[in-house]
Specification:
heterotrimer, A mainly alpha (about 290), B alpha/beta (about 280), C mainly alpha (about 350), B: about 280 residues, alpha/beta, Rossmann fold, 4-stranded antiparallel β-sheet, about 35% helix, C: about 350 residues, mainly alpha, 15 helices
Chain lengths: ~290, ~280, ~350
């Protein structure tokens, strides 16, 4: 029972990181229909930012967190402005290849700057909280708490603020939104900023959990988060959250039944099954093509 | 995507409510719909749509914007699955058939917002429509067997012949997307004809054409009917065209047929005038 | 045959003969340069990799450029083909033939291996294609991506399920006979391009293109879109299987990690960079992208950065790829040349042919 519970908690913890990253994928896809492959690597950059500000500059962890989030946000917006904006009218595949190119560039640039080896650091948050007979790691609790808080803020931002409304309008109908006087450039940049900031938070949480950073850490993490976004229904914010937690729990379940070597396969198999039954994902809306 | 298929019905001879022109009077209709209807999210877009079109008849469907005219074409070609009712093509129910199968059964169409294979040549556009007639296997294509050359030549000649309806042979090698608007509409008609239909659906064939092009098109539509001996059903806003060539006209408003008959009947029908011009204010 | 004043058409059999002669000539030049040592073994290896990458790129181009779908699991089909071919070739006595210098005796086995690879990959293509192709757009991309990853996980872990050594997991399938000679790869490249070319220039190819152009219109003129989507997808998978088989016979040992998601992306980059739907583009960019990293070895640290930067800049300034959808045809070039010649001597030749000039 306690094993089950600890695996469940593990699942929620990994799922939190997936969910935070998945949100970025989902929001960007919802607004410009781009699978932003560079998104996974933004986590990597955020993780390095936090890593160096703590180890090399000995900054307070909280300040490092702020720096990491700021670095991710800035990077996300810069990528959008430099690489994606010129291609807004181009075929979608070209945009996709650009995203892949940016992803390559970030990974290889990081390799050049920081070296290809994995950098480890001492854990930031240590210790356990005992709850009855079970002890729960503080990191797990912190991760889940931060994620839930971030999601609450995001929901408020999207539902209540003017920019959030603009975002929803643009994802509904770009042309009509423009006619209503919504600035496309501003809204898209805002979306990238929010998505990247969430990835920044995710990167710090990742660092707390695994205490290491490497240039390629973003690719598999990004891929999983992307799967989470699709599973939940790409373009849907609650979907990305549900998808992230679902993938995290699924992986934990695989580990619990001693199938951890198969977990990547299981994740993708579930994804395929869900898509075959409900092609738009769990929370996605279907769109009929006008004939 | 699982929908319960509509029950298939056999053709039971019923007196048709439709006016058939003289020469079609003793024939059975090529197209017949019974209580056809579709709902979009609880909203009824088309309801109780009943028509019968004779085998060589030119029928017109008019009505204000948003009346459901194009929806009816989408229903007839099974792009949309009807919520209610039956479509009989030459007495055979088309329920559960795919758009592809419906085309093979004999309904071809053009689109209101032109849907050509834009990057492909005019000739290729027609050849694609001849795909089902041009029978040879992938293997004989790869090995370039004599069968391939023969069938390709037949298809090419046929395509050129069809293009000649609108004198479009000189344009054969142009990309379809580069044609002027009117020519694109004409190419869509040629492409539809290439599938050898028994019923041709034209969705606003004269849209964007100037009066002289339109009058040429009118002659051509009649010519097509006379040469191919097929039924034609068209949606059009150009009243000169509709009143000029349609032997029977249906007026659609809010998804329902509000009037049916010859052009004279329609023009004097108070319901039609109301649908187009609004209700006359009393007092 | 209609002939306008300004165009010359070379009759079909002659076209094929010209192309065939040039291909044989290219083979002869390359292989004699290799035999004489002017092309070192190192570069022979690179040329073989170029060939394999060309097959991968042109086969993906069938599904991407011609059919207009976006499969992200091409490396999965390559892996299936590579392992199928590799396992078969380890089981038959080809190693001994090659060691004894008796390459001729191994030819039938190589043909069988290629066939097995193509068929296995094709079957996988069918299994994944039938459900995936029902979905439109990005969902197909995601399903194929998932498939590619599942293949890799299965190749890594299948032995523990089977209970005997089959793929040797992440330790790798080693000691595969190295049967992929330059000539074999060359023939496969030529055949692949020929098959794709002839299929695309037939009713089947036109149907495939019509789906890319406008699927709804395609259905409305009676094209069985499900059939042709599956057809193109399976063809693409089979050829990727062939490339995998050649890869197994060139590299000699296979690891599941070779066929990661990034491998699929690499192939996709070749296709998009070359220009979607342009076979020549795929061939050129596969060549450039295989050679470029080798040439950049002197700046080893920066080469991947330079590569990715080039990719981004290329896309920003030429979003339709190097060649757009332009396809090269030697015969067309020759025809244009002949036209130019005729324009120079215009009056005379056209009078000879008895054509009227208006």
């Amino acid at each position: 029972m306690s094993l089950f519970f600890s695996q469940f908690l593990n699942g929620l913890q990994t799922g939190s990181v997936y969910a935070l990253v998945a949100l970025g994928y989902s929001m960007v896809y919802g607004i410009i229909l781009l699978l932003n492959f560079a998104h996974g690597d933004i986590i990597m950059v955020g993780a390095y930012a936090a890593f160096y500000s703590m180890t090399a500059f000995h900054l307070h962890p909280l300040l490092s967190v702020v720096l990491a989030v700021a670095a991710s946000t800035l990077l996300g917006v810069v990528i959008e402005k430099v690489a994606y904006t010129p291609l807004r009218q181009a075929p979608r595949l070209s945009l996709l290849i650009t995203a892949i190119g940016v992803s390559f560039l970030l990974e290889n640039g990081a390799q050049l700057l920081f070296g290809s080896e994995t950098k480890s650091m001492s854990p930031i948050v240590t210790g356990n909280v005992s709850l009855g007979s079970m002890s729960i790691s503080k990191v797990a609790l912190l991760t889940i708490a931060v994620t839930v808080a971030a999601m609450a803020i995001l929901t408020f931002l999207v539902q209540r603020t003017k920019l959030g409304k603009a975002m929803r309008a643009v994802s509904e109908d770009m042309g009509a939104a423009q006619l209503m006087g919504i600035s496309l450039n501003k809204t898209i940049s805002f979306t990238f900023a929010v998505g990247s900031a969430l990835a920044g938070i995710g990167s710090v949480l990742y660092l707390c959990a695994y205490t290491q950073a490497s240039p390629t850490m973003g690719s598999m993490l990004g891929l999983k988060a992307f799967v989470a976004a699709v599973l939940g229904g790409i373009g849907s914010i609650p979907g990305a959250m549900i998808g992230g937690f679902a993938i995290g729990l699924l992986e934990a379940l695989c580990s619990a039944v001693n199938l951890s070597v198969w977990k990547d396969g299981v994740v993708f198999a579930i994804l395929i099954l869900v898509l075959l039954v409900k092609p738009t994902g769990i929370m996605g809306r279907s769109q009929a093509e006008k004939v | 995507m699982s929908r319960t298929p509509r029950p298939k019905t056999k053709l039971v001879p019923q007196p048709t409510t439709n006016y058939l022109p003289e020469r079609d009077a003793d024939k059975r209709p090529i197209l017949e719909t019974r209580h056809l209807g579709i709902d979009f999210g609880g909203l009824s877009a088309v309801s109780d749509f009943n028509v019968a079109v004779g085998p060589t008849e030119i029928a017109g469907l008019i009505g204000p914007n948003g009346a459901g005219k194009t929806t009816i074409f989408n229903l007839l070609t099974n792009v949309y699955k009807p919520t209610r009712g039956t479509i009989l093509l030459d007495g055979i129910d088309t329920a559960g058939k795919s758009t592809t199968e419906v085309n093979r059964m004999g309904i071809a169409r053009t689109f209101q917002n032109i849907r050509l294979f834009r990057q492909l040549s005019v000739l290729d556009n027609v050849l694609i429509a001849l795909n089902n007639e041009t029978r040879y296997s992938a293997l004989s294509a790869i090995l370039r067997l004599p069968e391939y050359w023969r069938r390709e030549r037949i298809a090419r000649d046929r395509a050129m012949e069809l293009l000649s309806i609108f004198d479009m042979q000189p344009l054969a090698d142009q990309p379809a997307g580069s044609l002027p608007y009117g020519a694109q509409r004409r190419l869509e008609i040629v492409r539809a004809l290439a599938t050898n239909p028994s019923l041709l659906l034209l969705d606003e064939p004269a849209a964007g054409m100037n009066p002289s092009e339109t009058s040429e098109l009118m002659d051509n539509i009649v010519k097509i009917r006379d040469t191919f001996q097929i039924a034609i059903m068209l949606i059009e806003h150009d009243m000169n065209l509709v009143m000029g060539i349609c032997e029977v006209i249906g007026v659609l408003n809010f998804g329902r047929i509000i009037a049916k008959g010859t052009s004279d009947d329609i023009q004097s029908n108070p319901l039609v005038i109301e649908a187009y011009l609004g209700k006359k204010k009393e007092g | 045959m209609k002939q306008t004043n300004t165009s010359i058409r070379i009759p079909m059999p002659v076209r094929y003969l010209i192309n065939a002669a040039l291909i044989v000539l290219l083979w002869f030049i390359l292989s004699s340069l290799m035999r004489s040592g002017a092309i070192t073994n190192y570069w022979t290896g690179i040329i073989i990799m170029i060939g394999i990458n060309i097959i991968l790129a042109v086969s993906l181009n069938v599904a991407t450029g011609y059919l207009g779908q976006l499969p992200l699991g091409h490396a999965g089909f390559m892996a299936v083909g590579a392992y199928a071919g590799g396992i078969f070739m380890r089981a038959v006595p080809v190693q001994e033939f090659l060691r004894a210098g008796n390459a001729g005796a191994s030819v039938p086995y190589i043909l069988i291996a290629l066939l097995i690879s193509a068929l296995t990959a094709g079957i996988f293509g069918l299994i994944i294609g039938i459900p995936a192709l029902r979905l439109r757009g990005d969902y197909l991309a995601i399903i194929t991506l998932g498939f590619g990853e599942i293949i890799r996980v299965v190749l890594t872990n299948i032995d523990s399920v089977l209970g005997f050594d089959f793929t040797f997991g992440s330790a790798g399938l080693k000691r595969i006979p190295k049967y992929s000679s330059f000539t074999l790869v060359f023939i496969c490249v030529v055949l692949t391009c020929f098959i794709i070319h002839t299929v695309m220039k037939s009713r089947h190819g036109r149907a495939i293109l019509s789906i890319r152009e406008n699927e709804i219109a395609s259905e409305s003129v009676g094209v069985n879109t499900t059939y042709y989507k599956t057809f193109a997808f399976v063809l693409s998978a089979m050829l990727a299987g062939v490339a995998g088989c050649l890869y197994a016979g060139y590299i000699g040992s296979l690891y599941p990690s070779t066929f990661k998601f990034m491998k699929s992306i690499e192939i996709l980059v070749m296709v998009v960079l070359g220009g979607m739907g342009s076979m020549l583009g795929s061939v050129l960019s596969a060549t450039v992208l295989t050679v470029l990293p080798e040439l950049l070895r002197s700046v080893a640290d920066y080469r991947m950065v330079a590569y990715s930067l080039a990719l981004v800049i290329m896309m920003i300034f030429r979003p339709k790829g190097l060649m757009g959808s332009y396809d090269f045809s030697l015969s067309h070039l020759l025809e244009k040349g002949l036209c130019a010649v005729r324009l120079l001597f215009g009056r005379k030749s056209s009078e000879k042919k008895g054509e009227s000039r208006e």
